Amino acid sequence: MSDTKSTVAKLLVKCLEAEGVEYVFGIPGEENIRLIDEMADSSIRFILVRHEQGASFMADMYGRLTGKAGVCTATLGPGAINLLLGVADAQTDSTPMVAISAQVGLNRIYKESHQYIDLQAMFAPVTKWSDTILTPASVPEMMRKAFDLAQRERPGAVYLAVPQDLEESDVSADLKPITVHPVHKTAPDADQVAAAIDMIKTAKQPIILAGHGVARSHASKQLIALSELLNVPVATTFMAKGVIPDRHPNALGVAGFMRRDYENFAFDAADVILSVGYELQEFAPSKINPAHDKKIVHIHHFAEDIDAAYPVDIAIEADIDKSLEALIDGLKNTTFPKFDNHAKIKQIKKEELDGNADDQSFPLKPQRIISDIRKAMGDDDIVLADTGAIKMWMARLYPTQKPSTCLISNGLSTMAFALPGALAAKLACPEQKVLAVMGDGSFLMNSQEIETATRENIPLVVLIWVDDAYGLIKWKMDLEIKHHRDVDFTNPNFVQYAESFGAKGYEITSADMLLPVIEKALADDGISIIACPVDYAENNKLTDKLGDLTITI
C-alpha cells in the first residue's frame, strides 16, 4: 500500500485514470515498483504477464478493438526492449498504444552505467513520439500528449521513459491531470468531393478498395451505402475484413495475397479505384495496379505516402464517414450503368471453401478447418489469425460479417500476437467468443501467457494448426526455389503441455472431431488448447491453381 505523499508514480496513475485506462499489461522491475504499487489503489487493473512481449501484444490488440490506447509497462533495459516488437506492430498497424518503461535515474543517465541504453532513441523509429520524462511538473502535459498522439488519426504507438529517481520524486499536491476533450470530426473539402463525383460519373468500371481505416473510423455503414448506390464491388485488405459483410452481394473478398488471387481480375478490369481507408503498409499497391494506369480517389483522414503504383488523382482527406456521406449525397440522384459485379470471382471463392467443408481427409485441409471455425463462431465473435500460412488461408477464406472480428497483423505481419492478443480481446469484448488461431511455430513463442490467462481467470481458446514446420516459409521456398530446408521442427505433446498450466488440452484425431471440440471449448468459457493436424499440401496446390488461372480465366 502506498503512503499518502504525492509522488510522480502516484501522479502517473492519476493521469492514466483520467485517460480512462482500465487495464495496464506488464511486468514489475526494480525500477518501476512504485508505479505498479500505486495501481493497486486505483481503478486500473494491472495484468501481470509472463513476458513483456506478451504485454505489448495485449496492449496492441486492446487498442485495436477499443480505439482507446492500450497501455503496457516494463522495467528498463531488457524489459523495455522486450516491449519493442508489440510497439512496432501497433505502429505499423495504426493502432493506438502507450508504452511506459522505467529508465536509469537522472543521476546517471548521462554516462555509461549498469543497464543503461538509450531507450528513447531505440523506440523513436517505431513510434509517433518517443521521449523521457525529465521533470515532475511535465508529467500531466506529457501524459496527455502521449494519449492524444496515440489516439489521433492516424493512430499509432507512443513511448515514454520514466527515470527511476524521478518516479519516486515528490510532486506538488495541486499538480493534476489535464482534462481530456473529445476529438472533433473534420469535414471533407467540397472541391475534392465534387471532383471525385465527376470522376465516378464517367468511370466505366469502378471498384472500391476498403482498408483498415474504415474499421477504425466505424464507417462500414457509409461504405456499404456507397457500394449499393453505385452497385460497385468492394475488395478489402486483410485487416479490413468484415467492413462489408462477406455475405453481401457486393463483397468481393480480400486483396493482398502473396500471388495474384481471384480478386486481382476485378482490379485488372477497373479504370477507377475508390480507395477508402487503405494504407500502403497493408499491402503493396503494385499488386492491384501493376501498370500504374488506374485513376485513384484516395479517401482517408490523411495523405498516403508516395508510391508509383498509387498515383492519387483526387484526395479527400477528412473523417472517412463524413467523406463517404458527402459522396453519397452528391451521387444519390445519379443513374449508373450496371457495372460488372464479378459474380464469377465470388462464386469461385465460395466453391473453394464450400467444396471442402465436408472433406474427411486427415490431417485436415485448411479449407475444412476454416469452415468448421466459421460454423462455431457467431457473426460478432472474434478470431485472431496469427502470421504464417494460417494467415493466408484465414484472410482469403474465412467469411467475416462484422468489422474487427477477424484480426490479422499485416503492417508488420508479426508472429505470436494472437495468443496474448486473445486475452486482451476478451477483456475488451467480454460478451463475445474469442478464438486464437495459430500455427505451431508461433504458438510456442508466447505460450507462457496461458499461465496469465489461468491466473487472471480470462477465458482463452487457442486452435493450433500443427504441421511441425514454419509452414509459410516452406511454402515460399517451394514456390520460389523449388525445395525447402531448415524449416522443420518437433513439437511437445500439446495436450500435456496445456494440462501442465491447468488448462484443458484436446488433440484432433479425425476431421469430424474438430467442430464439436471447438464448440465445447468456447462454451466452457475457460482455458482450452486444441491441436489440429493440418495438411499444407494444399499450399502449393493453391498457388499452382492461381498461376494457371492467370492464363486460363
Automatic annotation (TrEMBL):
Domain Thiamine pyrophosphate enzyme central: 193-327
Biological processes, Gene Ontology terms: isoleucine biosynthetic process; L-valine biosynthetic process
GO molecular function: acetolactate synthase activity; flavin adenine dinucleotide binding; magnesium ion binding; thiamine pyrophosphate binding
Pfam annotation, one family: TPP_enzyme_N
GO (cellular component) term, any one: acetolactate synthase complex
Domain Thiamine pyrophosphate enzyme N-terminal TPP-binding: 7-122
InterPro entries: DHS-like_NAD/FAD-binding_dom (IPR029035), THDP-binding (IPR029061), Thiamin_PyroP_enz_cen_dom (IPR012000), Thiamin_PyroP_enz_TPP-bd_dom (IPR012001), TPP-bd_CS (IPR000399), TPP_enz (IPR045229), TPP_enzyme_TPP-bd (IPR011766)
Keywords tagged on the record: Thiamine pyrophosphate
Domain Thiamine pyrophosphate enzyme TPP-binding: from-to ranges: 386-531
Family (UniProt): Belongs to the TPP enzyme family.
The protein, known as: Acetolactate synthase-1/2/3 large subunit
Species lineage: Bacteria, Pseudomonadati, Pseudomonadota, Alphaproteobacteria, Sphingomonadales
